[in-house]
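Lecture notes, part 5. Sequence design as translation. It can be helpful to think of inverse folding as translation between two languages: the language of shapes and the language of residues. The source text, in C-alpha coordinates, appears below.
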Protein backbone atom coordinates (compact mmCIF):
# COMPACT_ATOMS: atom_id res chain seq x y z
CA UNK A 1 0.00 0.00 0.00
CA UNK A 2 2.93 2.36 0.69
CA UNK A 3 4.14 2.02 -2.88
CA UNK A 4 0.69 2.76 -4.31
CA UNK A 5 0.28 5.82 -2.10
CA UNK A 6 3.70 7.05 -3.23
CA UNK A 7 3.13 6.44 -6.96
CA UNK A 8 -0.57 7.38 -7.27
CA UNK A 9 -1.97 8.45 -9.60
CA UNK A 10 -0.44 5.71 -11.71
CA UNK A 11 -1.18 2.71 -13.92
CA UNK A 12 -2.06 -0.20 -11.61
CA UNK A 13 -2.85 -3.71 -12.91
CA UNK A 14 -4.38 -6.27 -10.55
CA UNK A 15 -4.68 -9.96 -11.35
CA UNK A 16 -7.78 -10.66 -9.26
CA UNK A 17 -10.98 -8.93 -8.22
CA UNK A 18 -12.08 -8.94 -4.61
CA UNK A 19 -13.82 -7.13 -1.83
CA UNK A 20 -10.77 -4.88 -1.53
CA UNK A 21 -10.79 -3.83 -5.20
CA UNK A 22 -12.73 -0.62 -4.64
CA UNK A 23 -10.14 0.38 -2.02
CA UNK A 24 -7.27 -0.19 -4.49
CA UNK A 25 -9.01 1.87 -7.16
CA UNK A 26 -9.81 4.65 -4.66
CA UNK A 27 -6.20 4.80 -3.45
CA UNK A 28 -5.17 5.26 -7.09
CA UNK A 29 -7.60 8.16 -7.61
CA UNK A 30 -6.84 9.88 -10.89
CA UNK A 31 -4.85 6.88 -12.16
CA UNK A 32 -5.94 3.83 -14.08
CA UNK A 33 -6.65 0.60 -12.22
CA UNK A 34 -7.61 -2.55 -14.13
CA UNK A 35 -8.69 -5.83 -12.54
CA UNK A 36 -8.41 -9.21 -14.31
CA UNK A 37 -10.69 -11.98 -13.04
CA UNK A 38 -11.31 -15.60 -14.07
CA UNK A 39 -14.84 -15.84 -12.61
CA UNK A 40 -17.45 -14.02 -14.73
CA UNK A 41 -20.19 -14.33 -12.09
CA UNK A 42 -17.86 -12.78 -9.50
CA UNK A 43 -17.22 -9.82 -11.82
CA UNK A 44 -20.97 -9.30 -12.17
CA UNK A 45 -21.46 -9.50 -8.41
CA UNK A 46 -18.72 -6.95 -7.66
CA UNK A 47 -19.88 -4.65 -10.49
CA UNK A 48 -23.33 -4.43 -8.86
CA UNK A 49 -21.70 -2.82 -5.81
CA UNK A 50 -18.95 -0.93 -7.67
CA UNK A 51 -20.01 -0.33 -11.29
CA UNK A 52 -17.10 2.04 -12.00
CA UNK A 53 -14.37 -0.59 -11.49
CA UNK A 54 -12.63 -1.46 -14.74
CA UNK A 55 -12.53 -5.25 -14.77
CA UNK A 56 -12.14 -7.89 -17.46
CA UNK A 57 -12.87 -11.58 -17.67
CA UNK A 58 -9.81 -13.69 -18.51
CA UNK A 59 -9.21 -17.40 -19.06
CA UNK A 60 -6.04 -19.05 -17.81
CA UNK A 61 -4.92 -22.08 -19.78
CA UNK A 62 -2.80 -23.75 -17.12
CA UNK A 63 -3.46 -25.72 -13.96
CA UNK A 64 -1.45 -25.80 -10.75
CA UNK A 65 -0.44 -29.44 -11.35
CA UNK A 66 1.46 -28.28 -14.49
CA UNK A 67 3.79 -26.02 -12.50
CA UNK A 68 6.90 -28.22 -12.65
CA UNK A 69 6.61 -28.69 -16.42
CA UNK A 70 6.03 -24.96 -16.92
CA UNK A 71 9.00 -24.08 -14.73
CA UNK A 72 11.21 -26.23 -16.96
CA UNK A 73 9.79 -24.52 -20.07
CA UNK A 74 10.30 -21.13 -18.42
CA UNK A 75 14.02 -21.78 -18.06
CA UNK A 76 14.36 -22.05 -21.84
CA UNK A 77 15.80 -19.31 -24.05
CA UNK A 78 12.38 -18.38 -25.53
CA UNK A 79 11.31 -17.25 -22.07
CA UNK A 80 14.37 -15.04 -21.49
CA UNK A 81 13.66 -12.79 -24.47
CA UNK A 82 12.01 -9.50 -23.49
CA UNK A 83 9.23 -8.81 -25.94
CA UNK A 84 5.52 -8.01 -26.15
CA UNK A 85 3.74 -10.87 -24.31
CA UNK A 86 1.25 -11.26 -27.20
CA UNK A 87 3.99 -12.42 -29.56
CA UNK A 88 6.37 -14.07 -27.10
CA UNK A 89 7.30 -17.66 -27.97
CA UNK A 90 7.31 -18.55 -24.26
CA UNK A 91 4.40 -20.81 -23.32
CA UNK A 92 4.14 -19.04 -19.96
CA UNK A 93 3.26 -15.72 -21.58
CA UNK A 94 -0.43 -14.81 -21.31
CA UNK A 95 -1.44 -13.94 -24.86
CA UNK A 96 -5.22 -13.71 -24.44
CA UNK A 97 -5.55 -10.74 -22.11
CA UNK A 98 -7.59 -7.72 -23.24
CA UNK A 99 -5.68 -5.24 -25.43
CA UNK A 100 -6.20 -2.64 -22.70
CA UNK A 101 -3.70 -4.58 -20.61
CA UNK A 102 -0.97 -4.77 -23.26
CA UNK A 103 -1.31 -1.15 -24.40
CA UNK A 104 -0.36 0.37 -21.02
CA UNK A 105 2.99 0.64 -19.27
CA UNK A 106 2.16 -0.50 -15.75
CA UNK A 107 3.71 1.24 -12.75
CA UNK A 108 2.42 -1.38 -10.31
CA UNK A 109 1.22 -4.96 -10.86
CA UNK A 110 -0.40 -7.08 -8.15
CA UNK A 111 -0.66 -10.84 -8.78
CA UNK A 112 -3.45 -12.15 -6.58
CA UNK A 113 -5.14 -14.44 -9.12
CA UNK A 114 -6.05 -16.84 -10.48
CA UNK A 115 -7.12 -18.78 -7.42
CA UNK A 116 -4.36 -21.40 -7.56
CA UNK A 117 -5.04 -23.22 -4.29
CA UNK A 118 -5.53 -26.81 -5.57
CA UNK A 119 -4.04 -28.96 -8.34
CA UNK A 120 -6.89 -28.51 -10.84
CA UNK A 121 -7.22 -24.76 -10.24
CA UNK A 122 -5.79 -22.25 -12.70
CA UNK A 123 -2.30 -21.48 -11.47
CA UNK A 124 -0.53 -18.15 -11.20
CA UNK A 125 2.48 -19.30 -13.21
CA UNK A 126 1.54 -17.34 -16.35
CA UNK A 127 0.37 -14.29 -14.42
CA UNK A 128 3.67 -14.04 -12.54
CA UNK A 129 5.76 -14.58 -15.66
CA UNK A 130 3.71 -12.09 -17.71
CA UNK A 131 3.83 -9.44 -14.97
CA UNK A 132 7.62 -9.65 -15.07
CA UNK A 133 7.71 -9.63 -18.87
CA UNK A 134 5.49 -6.52 -19.09
CA UNK A 135 7.67 -4.78 -16.51
CA UNK A 136 10.83 -5.54 -18.49
CA UNK A 137 9.19 -4.56 -21.80
CA UNK A 138 8.22 -1.02 -20.76
CA UNK A 139 9.96 1.81 -22.61
CA UNK A 140 11.85 3.03 -19.53
CA UNK A 141 11.51 3.32 -15.77
CA UNK A 142 10.51 0.50 -13.46
CA UNK A 143 7.49 -1.49 -12.34
CA UNK A 144 6.73 -2.60 -8.80
CA UNK A 145 5.37 -6.15 -8.88
CA UNK A 146 3.67 -7.73 -5.88
CA UNK A 147 2.81 -11.43 -5.55
CA UNK A 148 0.32 -12.55 -2.90
CA UNK A 149 0.28 -15.99 -1.25
CA UNK A 150 4.04 -16.59 -1.50
CA UNK A 151 3.60 -19.18 1.24
CA UNK A 152 2.34 -21.47 -1.56
CA UNK A 153 4.82 -23.40 -3.71
CA UNK A 154 3.87 -21.95 -7.12
CA UNK A 155 3.86 -18.33 -5.98
CA UNK A 156 7.14 -18.82 -4.12
CA UNK A 157 9.08 -20.59 -6.87
CA UNK A 158 7.72 -18.67 -9.86
CA UNK A 159 8.19 -15.25 -8.27
CA UNK A 160 11.80 -16.09 -7.41
CA UNK A 161 12.49 -17.53 -10.87
CA UNK A 162 10.83 -14.90 -13.07
CA UNK A 163 10.73 -11.74 -10.98
CA UNK A 164 14.22 -12.52 -9.74
CA UNK A 165 16.14 -12.30 -6.48
CA UNK A 166 18.10 -9.26 -7.67
CA UNK A 167 14.86 -7.28 -7.98
CA UNK A 168 13.44 -8.43 -4.63
CA UNK A 169 12.61 -5.59 -2.22
CA UNK A 170 10.69 -7.07 0.72
CA UNK A 171 8.21 -9.65 1.90
CA UNK A 172 5.45 -8.90 4.33
CA UNK A 173 2.37 -10.95 5.30
CA UNK A 174 2.61 -13.40 2.36
CA UNK A 175 3.17 -10.59 -0.17
CA UNK A 176 6.49 -10.40 -1.97
CA UNK A 177 7.58 -7.12 -3.59
CA UNK A 178 9.93 -6.78 -6.57
CA UNK A 179 11.02 -3.65 -8.46
CA UNK A 180 11.81 -4.55 -12.05
CA UNK A 181 13.51 -2.05 -14.39
CA UNK A 182 12.94 -1.70 -18.10
CA UNK A 183 15.12 -4.06 -20.12
CA UNK A 184 14.73 -2.27 -23.43
CA UNK A 185 17.83 -0.11 -22.90
CA UNK A 186 20.43 -1.38 -22.34
CA UNK A 187 19.37 -4.47 -24.25
CA UNK A 188 22.31 -6.47 -22.84
CA UNK A 189 20.77 -6.45 -19.32
CA UNK A 190 20.30 -10.06 -18.15
CA UNK A 191 16.76 -11.34 -17.57
CA UNK A 192 17.60 -11.81 -13.89
CA UNK A 193 20.20 -10.19 -11.69
Amino acid sequence: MRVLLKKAPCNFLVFGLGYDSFMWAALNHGGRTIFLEEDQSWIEQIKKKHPTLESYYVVYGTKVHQADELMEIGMGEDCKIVFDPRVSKCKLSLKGLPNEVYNVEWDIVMVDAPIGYHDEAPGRMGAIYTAGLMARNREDGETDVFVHNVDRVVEDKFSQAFLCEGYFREEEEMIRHFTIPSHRNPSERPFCL
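The translated text above is only one of many valid answers, since several sequences can fold into similar shapes. The mean pLDDT is 95.
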